[in-house]
């Protein structure tokens, strides 16, 4: 994505720190974080997350200080805005250097950027497209994908229209990429029989887009293959209720046919048990 907009942001969302991102010490999806465990570093200024996220997304080019200052502090005169930006950059540079080393942020008197080489792979957003692409499920990556939130989750400033537009565009863009990565990892986990990861990712996709019957069918198939057809059919009944109650519609034919196949498998599996029970009752009556 390329844009001329910069964001300003609020504090990172509070709550659980979330699942650690394998190999990425800087987290921008969900609760923002620099470093992991005992090496985690806090930012002094809330707008430091704005600068960091923008530079990470808009990597590879230099951003004039005057432009950043004007967009982050639109109500201040240029001198005051540049002073604020200088303080934010100083704190941000120290935090990043402490967590991952020097050379990631490149700051001079006129402009700022992230070094494309030094910053490669440091951010969780850098790992999305590779997740699940090798066909082999990684439980740590699967857990992170199931837990990953939106870009700068819970962050925003009133009165920053350009920020709101930029952030909305980026959130939609990353949501699409996360969804594709979750689908890849879900399918890879299911193929390898890693049902815990497959179910977690399938449920995350359904929660993200409950009207997507493709996601619903995938969850039903995984539960049925896992040996929980009753749970699969419960998901189908919930979908039917939601569609009828909210939209006045019925599931697609493919979804209904899948549910019927699962029911048929349940009946075939139950039939031998019923015959065995019946034979046992006849024997007891004849005794």
From TrEMBL:
It comes from the Bacteria. It holds the Pfam family BTAD. Residues 123-263 form the Bacterial transcriptional activator domain. GO terms for biological process: regulation of DNA-templated transcription. GO terms for molecular function: DNA binding. This is Bacterial transcriptional activator domain-containing protein.
